[in-house]
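re the bet — no i am not wrong, look at it urself. input seq straight from the record:
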Amino acid sequence: MTRALITGIAGQDGTYLSRLLLAKGYDVFGISGPEFEEPSGKVACGGGTLQHLVADMTDMESLLSAVESTAPDEVYNFAAQSSVGHAWSDAIATTEVNAVGVLRLLEALRLHAPHARFFQASSAEMFGNTAQMPQRETTALHPRSPYAASKTYGFHIVGSYRDSYGMHASNGILFNHESPMRGLQFVTRKITDGAARIKLGISHELRLGNLEARRDWGFAGDYVEAMWLMLQQDRPDDYIIATGEARTVREFCDAAFGYLDLDYRDYVTVDAELFRPADVNILFGDPAKAHRVLGWEPRVKFDDLVAMMVDEDMRRLQSASE
């Protein structure tokens, strides 16, 4: 039975991927930090088994122990400080996890599981304000934030270990991917949560930053399938995982509020304090290589993604008020 180690299993991507792997009969070992500690012990789930471990991307000894004790066949690294905005206020901690943490994990694998296949969750933010549209695997990287810079280091160190040690290590350059599990610190979830609160009379205003920023938004449940497919290939490589469509934050507002028969213009206020120090104007990717090599393509459309997120926020807020 295939054994998979997932860091950051408590997050959105870790949750969706663990469900996918368990359905395929994997033994899954999930790493999360002490603040997300789960009950110890192994449980049967979806055809496979799931066991939680506690480790820290800033603690080499804990990573060595996790890798040695689980002897994984596949490793998926989602552990990260994933908020671009928060990275400006805590750049050092962001770099410790997102950059040096990747190095620590790769080194643990080199020492204790050199034949394991490794997936790194890289970010489209690495491209910055590139002139190439859409972005491809060959597009030059121009990180514009501490978050993007930390992810760029992680991306390059994966390539270095692949080339230097022959490790099956791949980067998924992930464009924005959302779901009902997305954290409330992300703009998409702020919008769907805000629209639901306004519809229910809990709030009367939603304050946002740059409404003209354009992003390529897909469904996290689709994207984890691409991650799994990457580790089933004979050769490691880097892939753009995206929908190939870019929409503005304003369009996301229009879709979310419109789904609830509201006009976002009556409720959304632009707050200059919420603008980032150096924002990226547009990101959208070309997933042609993933389609050609992996046979992957996204299934959930933009409007359906927005609707599922709004539905979940409506359900959550209504349940909380009962």
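see?? The chain has a mean pLDDT of 92. told u. also The CA atoms of residues 176 and 217 lie 5 Å apart. so pay up
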